[in-house]
């Protein structure tokens, strides 16, 4: 049985997903990105191990290289990204290894 086409996009090099309306960009370590016509919520359901760190982002825990002390900023491969207030609050309470569903 063949795997669905979207599963080929889920590689160890996938760092995060970002949303634009009803579309989602897949961002990879080498800087490339792919566009898919599904919402971020749909991808969150398919990728439960990814962290929802705000309205527009799902992040691969494998590529998180650090957090600020208050968890309002995280780092994907040493590049900063903004974390929503709600997600930062959850991270402060439960720790950075928790699965966030904001």
UniProtKB/TrEMBL annotation:
SMART domains attached to this UniProt entry: LytTR
Entries under InterPro entries matching the protein: LytTR_DNA-bd_dom
Name of the featured protein: LytTR family transcriptional regulator DNA-binding domain-containing protein
A molecular function (GO) term: DNA binding
Keyword match DNA-binding: yes
Annotated HTH LytTR-type domain residues: 4-96
Keyword Transferase found: no
UniProt entry keywords in alphabetical sequence: DNA-binding
Organism: Larkinella insperata
